[in-house]
Structure formats: structure tokens, C-alpha cells
Amino acid sequence: MQIYLPIAEVSVNAFLLLGLGGMVGVLSGMFGVGGGFLMTPLLFFIGIPPAVAVATEANQIVASSFSGVLAHFKRRTVDLKMGCVLLVGGLTGAALGVVIFNYLKSLGQVELLVQLCYVIFLGIIGSLMFVESLNALRRSSRNAAPVKRKNHTWVHGLPFKMRFRVSGLYISVIPPLLVGLLVGVLSAIMGVGGGFIMVPAMIYLLGMPTKVVIGTSLFQIIFVTAFTTLLHATTNYTVDMALAVLLLIGGVIGAQVGAVIGTRLKAEQLRILLAILVLVVCGKLAFDLLVMPSELFTLGAAGGH
């Protein structure tokens, strides 16, 4: 069933969009990521313009994250205090990111920037998560004692400390604010919730327990992506509501399924699955970037005559 998207100005299959939304919703519930790092490139691949894909995907993440966070609230695995600190940084970063996005859009460089950001961030994070998860799986298969994280790292020496009871932490608010800021900028420029950066940062940098990380990440993502969508809608007019609604319906259903699947798997298994997925998407985008210059070269040659 073909449907015409008025803002994107293309016709796509409605069931394909529902399926994509559902698949990304499952990821949201399982891993605590908004799923935008996967959905935005998929929207590029089916012909949605980058500016529309980024702005609309931020909208869809709000719904799938909200659906996922409800399941975590029931299990009491959301650190609201930590979520609010991350949120302050996130909202500031989102405002900054939209300014950068609009500037690059005026230069006509948005698509290149978005794809480069994806390749760099997904490549680094996917590799680090894969290596760490593989080591954790090896230790658990040998029944070896898990390597304890150092209780005192450079993070613990920073000022402005605050107690986060749900996470069992007493740390400076500076690292969570900076993590939130970075995720906010990425949310605006890349159309992602930023969970693929936030989840590893919360586990390894802040030292939060894995069971609390996913719910807290989703809580923060809801508000940052909602704010991002609002900014894009009012400054760029690039939010396609027809596209958003179809992705949203699939995403809400998928997030509930993902939250159930997530409780059945070990934390190490979840992380290694997410790492593989991140690396696959990164590879596809890198391939597209390498193929693109030949087309640009022919355009340049044509202009030279």
C-alpha cells in the first residue's frame, strides 16, 4: 500500500514503514537506545531526504522511548535524579545542534555531515563495545570472577558531587552534564536518541549498574528528542507527520516486545548483539560514502565543460 509523504515529497510503502518502526522499537526496549542510529540510515536508503529523515526520526524516538520507559518504571530501574542531570545537558546540546544543522543545511552539506558522523561514532563505539562484551562473555563462560571496575577514577575527583541513590553513586554532576550535552548535539544533527553513546558512557564512565542504565537512558531520550523535534519543526519545517505516525505505531508496539526480550538475555549478550548491529550499519554507511565520490566527480566534470 503506497502512501505519499507531503513534506518528504516521495511515495513509500506504508507496511514497510510500520515494519521499520516495529524493528527499531524492539531495539529500544531491549538495549535502551532510541534506535535512531539504525532508523535514520534506513530512511536514507528508502529515499527519504536527509533533513526530513533526521527531524522526523527524532519524533518517532519520543514514542518508542516513552513506551520502553513505562516498562522500566514498573521494574523501578529508572534513576530519575541522574536522568534530570543528563537532561539539563541534553536540552542545551539539542539547541546547539539545531543551530549547527541549520547552518550546514544553508551550505548544502547536511547529508555529508550526517553520514560522516554516523560512520565515525558507530565505528568507534561498535568496536569498543564488541571487544569489551567479548571479554565479558569469555569470563562468564570460564566462570571467572568479573573484573571489578575501579571504585575511584578521575571522575570521582571532580567537584560538585551529588548522591544518586538508585544508582548507588556519589559523583560529580560534570560528567553526566557533558554526556547529556554531547547526546543532545547528536540528537539534533543525526536524528538519534544518542543511546548508543549514552549507554556505554553511563556504564563505563559514570559506573552505573547496567539494570538502571537502560531505563534512565530512555527517560532522558524522551525529553531531548521531543525538544529536538519541536526545534526542527519550527525552524526547518522538515517534520513529516504522515511518516512520523507510521513509524510511531510500529515503534510503540516493538518497544514493549523488546523490553520483554531484554529481560530474558544476559547483559553481556545484549551488549554484543548491539555492538554487531552498530558495526553492520557503520559498514553500510561507509560503503555508501566511498561509492559516492565517483558520482560527484562526474557531476564536477560535467560542470567543467
TrEMBL record:
Lineage: Bacteria, Pseudomonadati, Pseudomonadota, Alphaproteobacteria, Rhodobacterales
Subcellular location: Cell membrane; Membrane
Keyword Methyltransferase: no
TM helices/strands, residue ranges: 12-38, 44-71, 83-104, 110-131, 164-182, 188-206, 213-235, 241-261, 273-292
PANTHER family for the chain: MEMBRANE TRANSPORTER PROTEIN MJ0441-RELATED, MEMBRANE TRANSPORTER PROTEIN YTNM-RELATED
Source organism: Cognatishimia coralii
Lipid bilayer topology: Multi-pass membrane protein
Record-given protein name: Probable membrane transporter protein
Keywords assigned: Cell membrane, Membrane, Transmembrane, Transmembrane helix
Sequence similarity: Belongs to the 4-toluene sulfonate uptake permease (TSUP) (TC 2.A.102) family.
InterPro entries in the record: TM_pro_TauE-like, TSUP/Inactive_protease-like
Superkingdom per UniProt: Bacteria
